[in-house]
Amino acid sequence: MVWCSKLPNVPVYNNSQMEGLDFIFHQNMAQRPFFLYWAADATHAPVYASKRFLGKSSRGRYGDAVMELDYSVGQMLAWLRALGIDKDTFVFFTSDNGAAVMSGPKQSGSNGPFLCGKETTFEGGMREPAIAWWPGHIPAGTVSQQLGTVMDLFSTSLSVAGLSVPDDRLIDGLDLSPVLHNNTLINRPIFYYRGNEMMAVRVGPYKAHYWTWSNSWEEFNRGINFCPGQEVAGVTTHTQQEHTMQPLIFHLGRDPGEKYPISAVTKEYQDALSRITAVVEKHKKGLVPGVPQLNMCDMAVMNWAPPGCEKLGKCLKAPKSQPWKCDWPH
């Protein structure tokens, strides 16, 4: 356990939490507005937890990491209250993908009823928790059915800060501040991409899969399974299966686990397909090619000497920076 000298009565158990709290403290002391992006990585393989939390949950190492994450977020919120800036601070908690379910016993997460996990475009891979916190501005205990994406955080954050979204470029995210303040619902589609391919689209409660793929047979045969115990025939395919002529459509309200495609001969299917097709056509007409940002690799950017490596004698010298174009396999 670490106690940060500038943070009275706030026990800290990991360096990233301490740095976050210290940053908030110094910004507040200087009376400067701040943006803090705190990305906890303990639940990412290799899963880890601090000594105080190790072995304390009933869900193995992964549960320990989630327990510590919960504690750390609580400490940050408590610190905002202690500094008296909680009513001036907008906090948003979410994740970049669903839980990984292929990391092995006691080191994998759970996506509950949702199909598969990280690296897929099924609900288990794409649906994440989202909690917005802003005392005095967002009513406590409110539950919203609004569809959102991480891309919306840019426009939403600018809005709550009283700033305008840039108009010199295309912005994919929406301003969700009306949802936060008034629980107003914004009718919008969600597009599920894997690389450059639009795999699926959600419009209202309906989700249409134009392509399906969990992971390759090569990986699967090595024991890497993105959908353990959840194989659905014709859906969780291990080859990239095209359904563009007749998409697989699910009603996520009735079938959140994407196990029972709606029959293509039913009126419900035809009505849903008609609505979704119009949305997809409009979306594709407005697409503008972007410059790839995930196709450059450089071994030098890895953390070769993380904090504490000196005590273990495990510090490594970083190689010379030699970036190269690389593949993004999924």
TrEMBL record:
Matching InterPro entries: Alkaline_phosphatase_core_sf (IPR017850), Sulfatase (IPR050738), Sulfatase_N (IPR000917)
GO molecular function, one term: arylsulfatase activity
Signal peptide positions on this chain: none
Cofactor(s) required, per the database record: Ca(2+)
Domain named Sulfatase N-terminal: residues: 21-162
Pfam families: Sulfatase, Sulfatase_C
Family: Belongs to the sulfatase family.
Protein name (record): Galactosamine (N-acetyl)-6-sulfatase
